[in-house]
Amino acid sequence: MKKYLILLFLFSYSIFGFAQENLIWIKFIVISHTPKPTYKIFITGDNLRLGNWDPSIVSLNKINDTTWVRKIDFHSGTSIHYKFTLGSWQNEALDSKGNVPENYHLIVNKDTTIKINIFKWKDETHQPQYKGQITGDVQYFKNFKGEGIKSRDIIVWLPPSYKKDLSKKYPVLYMQDGQNIFDPKTSSYGVDWQLDEAADSLIKAKSIKEIIIVGIYNTTDRMTEYLDTKLGHAYMKFVVNKLKPFIDKNFRTLPDRSNTAVGGSSAGGTISFLLAWDYPDIFSQAVCLSPAFHIQNINLVRKVLNYSGPKKEIRFYFDNGTIDLDSLLITGTKEMVSALISEGYRPGKDFEFYIAKGATHNEAAWAKRNWRYLEFMFGKSSNKN
């Protein structure tokens, strides 16, 4: 029943709830070079009309054993990232070398026909070659439950000395989209943030303090959970009231707010800002990469400008690329920076804003900037409040 409701909604609203006007069609034609009569091909991506990364909702229409077609309407200016599957991430499309490719990307501005050639599909007998692996020790907690939200996996990365110095306690960084930050095999797109390698290298170089990193997996409700919505507030309560106490109980953490930070990218950066802003007694720092602060009907800038209480003692790290979706999001980040300055926040001390010229909106781009926010938040010479 749920998928039928989603299918109905696909033709009503995009992820930002636009009205039905200025629609532009994109016709996707997929040519499979490994044809099988039983294949059912699906498109999935970062838009509700593409199933919000659910690999088994938006099917293409079969023309013959090699060709599938689907025409989908979007609003002008919509930026979409998408992939193709046979109905699950275990059967996603691969490139001609058998590797997991980066997302296809398009900014919708005119009626367009796109032809995609797919040479291989991931299956049980063909495992794609991923670049990288997990560096360091991690622990998994499967199907971690929260009230009012879907269960999800949790991955905890431990610093180099954790199992050697049993008396030592550590700061904690909570990260959204946890399946994407350490391991390319679990990443939704086959490319991870390499946050484990970055933290390990910076720790061993004595550039940052040793920290614990908690990766919180997302769910198919990601876009709703990561915004200022009813479900988003349920998610934040889960992090604050369920997950953090569990981590503090089961690991040697420094549980006070000055040693607790939160971060994420895209909508994950949006909810990370909200977590710090709404729970400054829990989090003292937040990293927001390519965040959605003011775009379409999302407006966290107004939330800051409407705040009339005392200055919240929070440090923020913001950064944006300048092309593709990031070229649209950067305006909202600049507005947020201006709003925070008007509230008494000081550049370089209370926040840092880095513009990565020529960078786009994906894991590979964010991975290149890991060191910046890790040093800003956990550097041994960082200037905290």
Describe this structure as you would to a colleague.
This protein has 385 residues and is of the alpha/beta class. It folds into two domains: 2-121, Immunoglobulin-like (Sandwich), CATH 2.60.40; 137-378, 3-Layer(aba) Sandwich (Rossmann fold), CATH 3.40.50.1820. Helix content is 24%, strand content 28%. The chain has nine helices and 20 strands. Strands 11-12-14-13-15-16-19-20 form an eight-stranded mixed β-sheet, sandwiched between helices. Helix 2 crosses helix 9 (370-378). The longest helix has 21 residues, at 230-250. The relative contact order is 0.10.
By CATH, the architecture of the largest domain is named: 3-Layer(aba) Sandwich
Overall mean confidence score, pLDDT: 88
Under CATH, the topology of the largest domain is which? Rossmann fold
What's the domain count? 2
Rounded radius of gyration (Å): 21 Å
Element pattern in H and E: HEEEEEEEEEEEEEHEHHEHEEEHEHEHH
Structural class: alpha/beta
Low-confidence stretches: 1-20
Major sheet, described briefly? 8 strands, mixed
> Based on DSSP secondary structure assignment, what is the total number of beta strands?
20
Note the gap between the termini.
50 Å
Report the helical percentage: 10-25%
> What's the CATH C level of the largest domain?
Alpha Beta
CATH superfamily of the largest domain: Alpha/Beta hydrolase fold, catalytic domain
Report the total helices. 9
